[in-house]
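Sequence design from tokenized structure. All designs in this work follow the same two-part layout: the structure record, then the generated sequence. An example of the structure record is given first.
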């Protein structure tokens, strides 16, 4: 049987890794796929040929659309990233009857509904395992391995840059800005780190996971997103004293009221396995009604870890090239036409536990007044600590954990607390999740 011919868009970090893995492991991959797989054409504006294996067998140009329009190619791998021209290239490939593999989480989160609809009509596949958590096969696990389950919730560390920063802050007591500069120097963070530290990258990935878990359309614009830029070393220290660690989590949960979709700093118990995932590593915890909690851990980025997921998708496409298109694994896990447009809950309607930190005057009655405001809002305090004032300072940090409360109730109480003459500045809040199995 003739090899399947593949066009590759992008020869950067992931594109180069994909070429290298496909070339180096060609025989093993062919054994798994049932036939050979060859990248014969590629498009790239610039690339370093010294780090690429098998480039002599690839025709490289700088016109991605010419690759997409090449009638010899069966599969297009899109590794350019971003929204445009990636969207136009993928839709053109689908129009030309070609299967598509992509690692582009932003593209899928923002335009996936349009892309999957076009692919369904043309009877082609769009595979995107590498779009979420790099080399961890989390999409296949949720979409296929856990297909017997009602998924109850997913919580994931799905951005390595943020996890590296929080790990360094915890282990070495460093300031956020200091660690961010190191992350940029090490290549973990971009020159503009907004997507990583403000949670946008994680929100793209969570949007995809939520759709696959609950059979809902992709709705990135409804995913609540909050970054880690306001976390201070003292918050990390106080969390540790309460028996928690702070992680930047993406959380999606199905409730009677609707679907929670939220990315924010989260305190989780130290004893949870996911709380001990450090550095640039990723981990996703999935709770199914039949299987219980399952944890998926590994490299969330990097050349060959991400290429591992890209090539696995290519193998899946090759295996199914002769399969009835109606029997392909559905893009978002549920059969086309069976997605349910359940409500996505605004963050104000989400119920969770909170860590609160505020700077207060060190005098009698202050704690009682704050506790009274919380009580009037029907917010119970689970634990509270008041630190000793620094020498010559008449203010102290007051930290506490609440019991579960609807965020809207807490917002009203915090607004009232911040009006007190004995409270300085804004109240710091971090949501707490115990992730019980």
């Amino acid at each position: 049987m003739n090899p399947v011919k593949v066009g590759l868009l992008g020869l950067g970090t992931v594109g180069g890794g994909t070429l290298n893995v496909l070339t180096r492991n060609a025989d093993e991959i062919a054994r798994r796929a049932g036939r050979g797989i060859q990248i014969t054409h590629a498009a790239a504006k610039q690339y370093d040929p010294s780090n690429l294996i098998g480039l002599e067998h690839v025709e490289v140009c700088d016109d991605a659309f010419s690759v997409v329009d090449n009638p010899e190619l069966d599969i297009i791998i899109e590794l350019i990233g971003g929204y445009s021209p990636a969207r136009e290239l993928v839709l053109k490939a689908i129009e030309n009857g070609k299967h598509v593999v992509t690692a582009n989480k932003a593209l899928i989160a923002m335009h996936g509904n349009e892309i999957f609809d076009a692919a369904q009509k043309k009877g082609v596949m769009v595979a995107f395992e590498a779009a979420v958590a790099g080399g961890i096969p989390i999409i296949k696990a949720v979409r296929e391995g856990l297909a017997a389950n009602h998924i109850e919730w997913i919580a994931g560390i799905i951005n390595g840059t943020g996890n590296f920063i929080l790990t360094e802050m915890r282990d070495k007591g460093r300031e956020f800005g200091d660690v961010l500069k190191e992350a940029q120097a090490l290549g973990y963070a971009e020159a503009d780190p907004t997507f990583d530290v403000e949670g946008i990258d994680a929100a793209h990935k969570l949007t995809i996971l939520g759709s696959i878990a609950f059979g809902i359309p992709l709705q990135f614009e409804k995913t609540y997103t909050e970054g880690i830029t306001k976390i201070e070393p003292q918050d990390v220290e106080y969390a540790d004293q309460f028996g928690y660690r702070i992680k930047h989590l993406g959380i999606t949960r199905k409730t009677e009221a609707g679907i929670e979709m939220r990315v924010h700093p989260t305190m989780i118990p130290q004893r949870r396995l996911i709380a001990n995932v450090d550095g640039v590593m990723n981990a996703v915890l999935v709770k199914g009604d039949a299987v219980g909690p399952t944890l998926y851990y590994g490299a969330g980025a990097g050349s060959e870890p991400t290429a591992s997921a890209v090539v696995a998708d290519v193998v899946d496409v090759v295996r199914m090239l002769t399969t009835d298109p109606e029997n392909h694994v559905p893009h978002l896990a549920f059969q086309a036409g069976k997605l349910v447009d359940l409500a996505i809950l605004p963050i104000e309607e989400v119920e969770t536990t909170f860590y609160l930190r505020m700077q207060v005057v060190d005098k009698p009655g202050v704690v009682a007044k704050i506790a009274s405001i919380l009580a009037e809002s029907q917010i119970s305090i689970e634990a509270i600590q008041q630190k000793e004032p620094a020498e010559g300072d008449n203010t102290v940090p007051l930290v506490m954990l609440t019991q579960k409360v609807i965020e809207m109730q807490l917002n009203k109480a915090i607004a009232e607390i911040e009006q007190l003459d004995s409270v300085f500045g804004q109240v710091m809040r971090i949501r707490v999740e115990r992730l019980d199995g």
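Residues 138-299 form a domain with the Dihydrodipicolinate Reductase; domain 2 fold (CATH 3.30.360.10). We note this feature because it recurs in several other targets discussed in the main text.
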